[in-house]
Every structure is written in C-alpha cells, then in structure tokens.
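cache lookup: miss for this entity combination. No prior model stored, computing from scratch. Input as submitted by user K.M.:
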Amino acid sequence: MSQSVENKIHELRETLRQHNHNYYVNDAPTISDFEFDMLLKELEGLESANPEFYDKNSPTQRVGGDVTKNFETVVHNNRMYSLDNSYSLEDLLDWEKRIQKIIEAPIEYTCELKYDGASINLTYEKGELVKAVTRGDGFQGDDVTANVKTIRSLPLKLKNEFVDSFEIRGEIILPLEGFNKMNKQRADAGEEVYANPRNTASGSLKLQDSAEVAKRPLDCLLYQVVSNSTKYNSHAQLLQKAKDSGFKVPDTIRIAKSISEVFDFVNEWDEKRHDLPYETDGVVIKVNSISQQEELGYTSKAPRWAIAYKFKTEQQSTLLNEITYQVGRTGAITPVANLEPVQLGGTTVRRASLHNADQIEKLDIRVGDTVLVEKGGEIIPKIVGVALEKRPNNSSKTEYAKNCPECNTELIRKEGDAKHYCPNEFGCPTQITGRIQHFISRKTMDIEGLGGETVDLLRKNGLVKNYADLYDLKKEMLLPLDRMAEKSAQNIIEGIEKSKKIPFEKVLFALGIRFVGETVAKKLARHFKNIDALLASSIDELIAVDEIGERIADSIVAFANDNITTSIIERLKENGVQLELSEAVLENQTDKLKGKIFVVSGVFHQVSRNELKKLIEDNGGKVSSSISKKTSFVVAGENMGPSKLEKATNLEVPILNEDEFLALI
Ligand code: AMP
Ligand code: ZN
C-alpha cells in the first residue's frame, strides 16, 4: 500500500515538473491551468496525509511560506566577478587585441543579451537545487533559497544531470508584462508604484515572506555554468546542456567567429531589444573555449575572457513647457515636467518625472529650458541635464510649489524626507480616495463590490469623505449614482457589513497610519491588544516594542494627536468595526515563550509548520530562520535538514520534538 502511495507521489511530482517546464520555460503548455491545479491539489493532499514522503523540492513547495528574518551570509565558492564595459566597435577591437596577445589560436566568441535584473548563484547537487545566493559584493552574498524556489521556471530537480554537482549563474528578472501588472494592482490599491523592473526583481529576493515572492511573476535566465567537469570544452556547449536539463537559457545566444560578427549581433539587438518581453541593457561577449578562458583568467575585478557591450541609453533634447505637481495617494508630491512632445525609444514622450525638490535644485531646471530626456530602466523617462547655452535670458529660478495643487493646503517637508507632503489627509481629494481605496483593498478590510472608481464616484457625490463614512451608506443613497444597478448597490452594502468582522490587526493596517504596514500592524495589535491602548501610548512605550523604531512611533503619536482621526476612529468603533483583538485570539495568547528565539525545521504532524510558528509568536516567542548562538530552541519535525541538526548540536542548542514543544505551551 505505502509503496503505491509513494509511487503515486513521485509520479505526480514528475508530471507536474514537466508541466511547469512546458508552461514556464517552453511557453507551450499541454494542459489547462485548471487541470494543472487539480493535479497539484491531488499531490498536496497525498503529501499532507503522508508526511514521511516530504521533499523540499516538490512542486508543492513553490508557493512559499518560509519566513526569513535575516538572510544568512554565504561565502561564494567561486567569486562572482563583475564585467568590464565597452561602448563602441573600437572598444571591442581593443579588447580583442588584448586577448590575442595571450592566445595565439583563433578565438570564437559567444554573444548573449545582458539581462537586466539581479544576479544569482545556484548550487545543484545530485540534480537538485540546494542553495541560491545573491551576488552581494562578489565574495559573499545572501542565502535567498526559500525565495528563489518560488520561481516557477527554475527547475528544483533536473530532468537529467549533466554533471554531478555544479553551480549555475543567472539573472532573476521581472518581465515587463508582469511588472506592469504588478504596478497596476498597486495603483489600484492606492500604493506607490515601483520605479523599474530591475530594482523590483532584486527587492523581491530580499522579501522576508517567501509566499509574497511566490506571487511575483519573476523569471530566471541562466548564463553561466561553473563546474570542474572536463567533459565539456565550450561555454555554448555547457549552456546547451543546462538547457537540456530544464534550465531557461534564452535562444538569443549566438556564436561569432570574429568581432565583426559580434558587432552584427550588437546592432541587430540594439533594434530588436524593444520587442523583447524583458529589459536588456547590452550584450555580453565571451570567449567560447573553456581552455582559452582558463588561459586568459581574471583581472582584479573581471574576467579577461568576457566583456559587456552597453547599448546607448536613448536621449533626446526638448523644451520644458511647464512644471506641474502631482499628489499621490499618501499625500506625497511629485513634480512633473511637461515637455514639448519628442520621440524616444519608440514612443512619444510628453512628461518626465522630476522626482523631488532637490533634483530640480541640483540640475537647476527651469521652465523654458531645453532639457535632455533619457529613457533608461525606468518606465517614466527622466531629465538628466539642461542645455544651459540655450537658456532664455529672462528665465527665472524654479520655485517649488508651496501649496497642494488639489486642496491648496500648505505643503510640508519633514527633515530627512526627500518629498514634500500635503498634510490635509482627510480633505485632499486624491488622498481621500487613496485612503479609502487602501481601506477597502483585499489585504485590509476586503470590501467586495467596491472598487477604486466607485470610491471616486462616492467622493464626487459627497457621500464619503473618509472611511468611517462608508458605514453610514444606505442602498438608497447609492442607487441614484451613475450606472449603479440594484445588485451592485446591494453587494457594496453587504461587503461593508461583512468588513465589521475583519480582525483588529487588519483594521489597524487599513487605517493607513504612515509607516504602519501589514507586519507592523500585526506586531502592534498583538502588543497593545486594542486601539485605545495603542493611541494612548507614548513614543517611549512604542519604541520599547520589538522592531518599532522612532519613525513609526512618531507617526503613530501624530495620528493619535489628530482630532479628525480620533473622531473617525470613534465612529468606526460605534459602527462595530473590530478595534480590539477578539476573545479567541486573546485566549490563545500568553507570554510563556517571552524572550525565547525558536528555529523551526522539518515536517510536523499535529500542526502545520505555519501553525507552529504562529503558536510561538502567539505565546510571545520569536521565530528565526537560522540557528545561531542566540537560538533558545530548535523545534525539529521529521526530516529536519542535516546541516541544521549539525549546527544545533555544535552550538549546543536544545532540540525539541513536536510533542515536547506543545507541552511547553
Ligand atoms: P556589471 O554588474 O555591470 O558588472 O555586470 C555584470 C553582471 O551582468 C553580472 O553579475 C550578471 O548579473 C549580469 N549579466 C546579465 N546577463 C549576463 C550574461 N548573459 N552573461 C553574464 N553576465 C550577465
Ligand atoms: Zn492636498
């Protein structure tokens, strides 16, 4: 019996792996998403009923769930060098001359695109991923394995091993389509949008919650195999083998017999790159022969056998007609340059971000100036310079806006802040809509039926000025609105009613107190237990809470001292919104584990791993991802990782099994 369950689990894992590969690497799925989900559910069911067959690299592990507080630093086995840059055919010919002094035989080159993301070093042993480490300073980086495992196109188990153990390097990128989708969702939720795919990709690797990473449409493109094997003698061959084993190696790689052929590739892609689904900022040229590579070796910074060619960033000069100011959902002001339309990178550019007052000051940008506009990694173009010689005689220095363009309130700029803010949180139209949108979004009060546009409609019709007003809405008030059907009105009212059950920690996040994000809200809710205690606390009391800093404390105190906010909170309370932890939660909370730091490893039977972590936190303990001298206990389930076991034993950290832990609380 058990043998057949085990076989079934292995079979499902293999099948799912193949479908993952078809979908995410080959872009050619052979089953529907629904069928895939059904297979995955089946596997999840079997795995949770038969935890003895746990596998950290099972396709079910892609959804993440591990939370890492501090990423462990790992020294690279092989240094991750940087690349020298070149900008012209001449530079490339110079490079060729330099290497021809060392190598006499003919040299063959490979040309690859330079993928613009975050570099990663992956270690595979016996065909399975064991570690993923960021480049860091080239000598050592951060262990981000839990996060990287969520990237669907990256094989956790290889189809066929081509060498026993090896490292492979690649770039973690965020394709443009996924990036734009993420930004649209953020904009809809009233959050600030991300500036560019590259920073968002590298930021994603450092998220503490791998389940969050799993939601991001990251991809991993591989470009180099590091192995001691002497089986293969060219870079292109190694990449082909990697591809055959299931890695995503772009087809754009080409072999060139001369620098002139290299330059053809460069010119071709300088055009075609705009049609790629991801961003590239250049080409990487490598000597193809591994033995020639070894002969050439490295300088103190970069390999001699490779060079990057950087595409020219596109720039155009045009006239700056006007500077306007935009209010963000949180009141942050962004100055915008309104330009004489100009063609840049295949699109017409009319506006460019000026970022903040310092930026304008630094470049001394003035209306009437001829400015240089650049489209780099950013989606929104930026101004990189001013043609002073073309400045009109009568031009005057830019005075930054003093008042909010929407509500005319005087702007403020706090020390240390780059941006000006409109402090009229509850009176400024964009901020009103923005705050309510945040309040109703999925991660906060989750009010179904109410979207951004409807909120704007409600505001324009004078029905809501703040989120407490939502609770005064009646169906009859909604019906006269533009395109508001009976059914939608009903849905909105029901959604609002349902939100009264949303637990306190989410409500606290929904309130939109500056710097109080999801995790901070959770911490505060647990510590203060209700809104009154929180708002009555002093800066010192707030800072005394683990992980609450001065910036957050200041912001909470400011919120508490504002008459408008406090009256809004009172109204929420009167309407039955949860402003304290529920009895059920309180009952389960103790201080039994206060001051103790736990590391959890392995598979558990009575509770899931996440439940176990929650139990630790509910009882005042802390969960950490790596074992150190500070660790109080390791809670070990079945199949605890051998390296963790060794570390715990060496550091003499007591190990508890599931029962012992449960007895403790
Ligand atoms: P740089 O950061 O400018 O020194 O360039 C080196 C980085 O380029 C490496 O760390 C890689 O992350 C990245 N890169 C992107 N595409 C490639 C590629 N095809 N081959 C080698 N490196 C690449
Ligand atoms: Zn305003």
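stored under new cache key. The chain has six domains: 2-63, 85-310, 315-390, 429-501, 504-586, 597-664.
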